[in-house]
Write a sequence for this structure.
């Protein structure tokens, strides 16, 4: 009876989470990891004087998207300290980074998790996971806190990559931590893949310039369930976990192959070549297929069936492919049968019909945008939101024409992607976290 009661409680908890997550933003790219808030109605227009419920000055940099669960926002930051590297440490860093395009910061950083009250913008608690001297720099548009947290509504899982993986409860108590090693990323551009969560399994992608792997951990304890080696150079793509005819599978986009693994065992189910070097965008999926894309000099977009098996490289088993206008940094948003994405990092956007792969919204330049876009687009309430680095947001009606509803600006710089919950949108800039709120008058 005890086992039966425990099992029933676990099922009830899983069903409750499955419903509640649709009203929250519990992970990178939102409830279904596709950039969509299905039950939200966020604001359409704002500026520094109107539409901002609150803004919070942040203690340090980070490109990680905030996550939201009920009335709490969780976000990470890397905070420089006054503790400089010793001469010996500095010499070792220069030696280790010979030939890299960037050199590491010669100052220790605190890697921190913040819990912020969603309604007031006040910091409820702030925890230093670890203090460390970074062994690499990062891309000028990157940060030392680029991976977004993920939550199951009971615990928060935070990856600082080479500086540790941490699990906290909602009171800020550290429950467990893991050291997965040290990454050496291509050109010293830094780390960025977020952890992915499905039920009681946490998955971390560890693609870098040395021994790459994918690992699945027990979410409650941090213990390894399985680990598979990968023949891949650095990628920054977050794993996508989806249900499929063969059960839950982990899909990872990367340079050599996109691969699907059984969540239960790590068994390789299928693989497909065709993406470019430096894979950054995360895949998205519907009930039929997974859509993967990348750009680095060339473009590639692949539609791969979820019931795939074996090697699909160059195969007619692909549903379709597209070889133009793919994004470099931003991930796509999959909204009501349309796949929206930017060209490289530019404010030129396209959408494709996911059934056919045909162009729906022809390539069009977003108006009044003066910078590149590193943030990924999001969608809600029949609208698609494009956030540029200079603080300009274009809000467009979903459709085959670029019907711009509003152009809004904030006085900050942005690389982190938006998060949307109910009538609010959260934008994380270099200096501030903004809460934008839709009022009845809108």
């Amino acid at each position: 009876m005890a086992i039966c009661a425990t099992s029933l409680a676990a099922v009830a908890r899983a069903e409750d989470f499955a419903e509640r997550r649709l009203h929250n933003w519990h992970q990178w790219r939102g409830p279904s990891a596709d950039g969509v808030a299905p039950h939200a109605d966020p604001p359409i227009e704002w500026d520094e004087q109107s539409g901002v419920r609150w803004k919070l000055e942040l203690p340090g940099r980070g490109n990680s998207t905030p996550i939201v669960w009920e009335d709490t926002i969780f976000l990470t930051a890397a905070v420089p300290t006054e503790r400089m590297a010793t001469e010996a440490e500095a010499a070792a860093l220069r030696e280790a980074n010979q030939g890299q395009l960037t050199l590491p910061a010669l100052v220790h950083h605190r890697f921190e998790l913040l819990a912020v009250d969603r309604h007031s913008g006040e910091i409820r608690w702030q925890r230093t996971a670890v203090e460390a001297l970074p062994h690499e720099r990062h891309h000028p548009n990157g940060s030392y806190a680029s991976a977004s947290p993920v939550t199951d509504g009971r615990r928060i899982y935070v990856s600082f990559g080479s500086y540790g993986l941490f699990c906290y409860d909602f009171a800020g108590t550290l429950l467990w931590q893991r050291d997965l090693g040290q990454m050496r990323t291509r050109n010293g551009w830094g780390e960025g893949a977020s952890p992915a969560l499905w039920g009681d399994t946490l998955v971390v992608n560890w693609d870098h310039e040395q021994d790459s792997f994918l690992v699945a951990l027990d979410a409650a304890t941090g213990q390894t369930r399985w680990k598979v080696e990968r023949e891949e150079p650095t990628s920054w793509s977050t794993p996508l976990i989806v249900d499929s005819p063969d059960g839950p599978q982990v899909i990872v986009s990367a340079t050599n192959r996109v691969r699907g693994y059984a969540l239960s065992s790590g068994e390789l189910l299928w693989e497909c070549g065709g993406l470019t070097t430096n894979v950054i965008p995360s895949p998205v999926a519907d009930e039929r297929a997974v859509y993967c894309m990348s750009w680095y000099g060339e473009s590639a977009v692949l539609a791969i069936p979820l019931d795939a098996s074996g090697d699909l490289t160059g195969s007619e088993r692909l549903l379709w492919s597209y070889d133009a206008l793919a994004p470099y940094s931003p991930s796509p948003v999959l909204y009501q049968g349309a796949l929206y994405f930017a060209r490289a990092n530019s404010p030129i956007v396209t959408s494709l019909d996911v059934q056919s792969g045909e162009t729906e919204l022809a390539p069009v330049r977003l108006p009044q945008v003066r910078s590149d876009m590193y943030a990924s687009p999001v969608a809600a309430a029949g609208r698609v939101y494009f956030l540029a680095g200079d603080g300009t947001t274009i809000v467009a009606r979903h459709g085959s024409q670029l019907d711009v509803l509003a152009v809004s600006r904030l006085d900050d710089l942005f690389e982190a992607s938006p998060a949307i919950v109910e009538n609010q949108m959260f934008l994380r800039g270099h200096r501030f976290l903004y809460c934008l709120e839709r009022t009845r008058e809108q």
